[in-house]
Amino acid sequence: MFHIAKWYKIGGKDKSEGAKINIQGTRNVLELMKLAQQITGVPAPRIRVPPAMLKATSGLMSVVEKIVPVPETYTAEYLRVNAGVTYLGTNAKAVRELGYNPRSLEEGLPETLHHEMQLLGMK
Q1: For the chain, which residues make up each domain, given as ranges?
Q2: Which residues are within 8 A (CB) of 117 and not within 5 positions of it... i.e. 6 or more apart?
């Protein structure tokens, strides 16, 4: 969170107000689940729907959700993300222009997951 706040503070002074700067990484959901399992010891879901099926269902749900409300976990966007679709971007501009220097996911995610586990009474 500190890194985001620092970026935001620095970004407010950016010459090109309203410029878009990526600060995310390039991991997909499956990679994140595997990493979370390694960190916490909590098994990732065993059932994995093939990405092609999720992508196809996503297309169908994009039509359905325009007609009737659907639960968040059935939205086209949710299905696309869980199919492993990534929104690849680079934080090179934030690094270059703002001095953005985030921790690696392997460094920062354990703290977040252990905190969430404590809140859930898991450890």
Answers
A1: 2-119
A2: 40, 42, 123
